[in-house]
Write a structure and sequence with these properties.
By secondary structure, the protein is α+β, with helices and mostly antiparallel strands. A hairpin with a 2-residue loop joins β11 and β12. The strands form five sheets. Strands 6-7-13-10 form a four-stranded mixed β-sheet. It has a three-stranded mixed β-sheet with strand order 1-5-4. A two-stranded antiparallel ribbon has the order 2-3. It folds into two domains: 209 residues, HSP40/DNAj peptide-binding domain, CATH 2.60.260; 93 residues, Urease metallochaperone UreE, N-terminal domain (HSP40/DNAj peptide-binding domain, Sandwich), CATH 2.60.260. The protein is 30% helix and 25% strand. The longest helix has 19 residues. 27% of the residues are buried.
């Protein structure tokens, strides 16, 4: 199994703070997002790798364990150890004394049907029970105890968070359809009752919680239930006024542009943002910032007209 240098993948120093890590992640995620690179398997694989790295470095608990593991791994290598002989038992999230392993058919990193949500063997080996972090009473499995809750990270797109979606999970040969509600945010947990670890005799099983991360979008920036985006506006419409077609997550709308609109002006489109999680019929707003484009490669007549305009203005 290959060691993964998550710091190198994100492109930050090992002493980088949370803000720097998040900034580097968002920049790379936008660059390699599948919507920006359709049909490019290399970009899709890089996107998966970036998201896995941020899943670790963006979580203080996982990052602390990863840093300790990295020091141990480097010491093992300096002593001439071979990768196949490394003792994973003290690090594996699935093993060790008192550890609990839940057998879900398929790839645990791919619970939501594949794509950008998948995690590597390295991640699953190191963070198995942290990726499915226990939210119950520790690692106890004594008589008379309710089954443990488990937690696993999953990732969805902003479009899926907007429209809501459904994914299929296989467990113990059974298929479970999991609904992801409209308006879900990063950090939300979806509960699947009774699908955690079994309880002791006569006691109920725990629950399975899917912890959601909404991937960055190449166009829209999410701020709570609001969205922001930038659109190009031609010089003539900015000066004379007119209409501008603006894409939203549920289709195009027409924005009325007043005369003399300045570059960088922001327009508010009410109720064109994200659905509100507990009230999906209500929506946030979309803030549209215009970027005025100047004409290029003017012909002689156009230059003459702009010169005449300049003289009139003076």
């Amino acid at each position: 199994m290959d060691y993964k240098d998550y710091y190198k993948i994100i492109g930050v120093d090992k002493n980088a703070n949370e803000k720097d890590i998040k900034r580097a992640y968002r920049k790379l995620a936008r660059e390699f997002h599948p919507d920006v690179n359709p049909g490019n398997p290399q970009a899709e694989e890089r996107f998966k790798e970036i998201n896995e790295a941020y899943e670790v470095l963006g979580d203080p608990e996982k990052r602390a364990k990863y840093d300790k593991f990295g020091a141990s791994w480097q010491q093992y290598q300096r002593m001439g150890g071979k990768p196949g002989g490394f003792d994973w038992s003290q690090w594996s999230g699935f093993g060790g004394p008192g550890g609990v392993r839940v057998d879900l058919s398929g790839d645990l990193g791919d619970l939501f049907g594949g794509g950008s949500g998948g995690f590597s063997d390295f991640f699953n080996a190191l963070f198995g029970n942290m990726g499915m972090r226990s939210t119950g009473a520790g690692q106890r499995a004594r008589r008379g105890m309710r089954g443990q809750d488990i937690e696993h990270p999953v990732q969805i797109t902003l479009d899926e968070a907007f429209h809501g979606t459904q994914r299929r999970l296989e467990k113990d040969g059974r298929r479970l359809d999991v609904k992801v509600p409209r308006g879900v945010k990063t950090g939300a947990r979806i509960r699947i009752a009774g699908e955690g670890t079994p309880g002791s005799t006569g006691m109920p099983a725990g629950n399975l919680y899917l912890k959601v991360t909404v991937a960055p979008h190449p166009i829209f920036i999410r701020e709570g239930d609001d969205l922001r985006r930038t659109v190009d506006l031609d010089l003539y419409t900015a000066i004379l006024g007119g209409e501008l077609r603006v894409g939203t997550l549920d289709g195009d709308v027409t924005l009325k542009v007043p005369q003399g609109t300045q570059n960088g002006r922001t327009f508010r489109l009410r109720s064109k943002g994200m659905p509100k999680l507990r009230h999906p019929d209500q929506r946030g707003d979309l803030y549209v910032k215009v970027h005025v484009r100047l004409p290029q490669e003017l012909n002689e007549r156009e230059k003459q007209l702009f010169q005449e305009l300049a003289e009139l203005r003076h």
